[in-house]
Automatic annotation (TrEMBL):
GO MF entries: neuropeptide binding; neuropeptide Y receptor activity
Annotated membrane topology: Multi-pass membrane protein
Family annotation (Pfam families): 7tm_1
G-protein coupled receptors family 1 profile domain segment(s): 12-189
Annotated GO CC locations: neuron projection; plasma membrane
Keyword Transmembrane among UniProt keywords: yes
Protein name: G-protein coupled receptors family 1 profile domain-containing protein
InterPro entries for this protein: GPCR_Rhodpsn, GPCR_Rhodpsn_7TM, Prolrel_pep_rcpt
Domain of life according to the entry: Eukaryota
Keyword Transport: no
């Protein structure tokens, strides 16, 4: 499910920016789309589930749950490359394409009326910030998910390519780095999006309760 969420979010932003007046999909269509995503996700992990085994090492005193493709090296590599394409290359391409369309749409947008020089400069600065934000969001998505895919491909091609002493640590760090992509966007928006940053400041700003001066005068008179 994770590999389909990012392109779906970008697709919503694409239609909201490029085709703001276009009719949105119905609830029924959404149900079918979500059902298709679930079926595709289940189909994608089915080969891995079919070749995953629970192995106990009694003498060593530990147990593992891992994929074993005994005698099926070609099938294993075919599945690994297919997973790489479906879960990384295609989503990254879809995200990049949708953001390119959004950038072109924003670049060709014209300020209505006869804008002053300051208004035109403000619009140029805003477009520049939007472009930087788009590039950074796409780059963050690509960079965060790249290590885990490289790790999986190296493991599937030849597990000896990865040091046994650091295998679990590298696997943990790669997964952690991939999951960190979910928290990158808020920081990028807070850094480059003026409205988002101002609203965030309002949310965390401590509001002091100010007593009107008339109340203070009345209190002094009573004393």
């Amino acid at each position: 499910m994770r590999f389909s969420r990012k392109p779906r979010e970008r697709n919503e932003r694409y239609y909201a920016t490029v085709h703001p007046l276009k009719k949105r999909i119905s609830v029924t269509t959404c149900v079918y789309v979500l059902g298709g995503i679930w079926l595709l996700s289940c189909a994608l992990v089915a080969p891995a589930i079919a070749h995953t085994y629970y192995v106990e090492f009694h003498e060593e005193g530990f147990t593992i749950c891992e994929e074993f493709w005994m005698g099926k090296k070609k099938e294993h590599l075919a599945y690994a490359y297919s997973a790489l394409i479906i879960t990384y290359i295609l989503p990254l391409s879809a995200v990049s394409l949708s953001y390119i369309c959004i950038t072109v749409k924003l670049k060709n947008r014209v300020v209505p009326g006869h804008p002053t020089q300051s208004q035109a400069e403000f619009d140029r600065v805003r477009k520049r910030k939007t472009f930087r934000l788009i590039v950074l969001v796409v780059t963050a998505f690509g960079i965060c998910w790249l290590p885990i895919h490289l790790f999986n491909i190296m493991r599937d091609i030849d597990i000896n390519m990865i040091s046994k002493d650091y295998f679990l640590l590298l696997q943990l760090l790669c997964h952690w780095f991939a999951m960190s992509s979910s928290c990158c966007n808020p920081f990028l928006y807070a850094w480059l999006h003026d409205r988002f940053r101002s609203e965030l400041k309002k949310m965390f700003t401590f509001r002091q309760k100010i007593i009107p001066s008339s109340n203070c005068v009345a209190g002094n008179v009573m004393l």
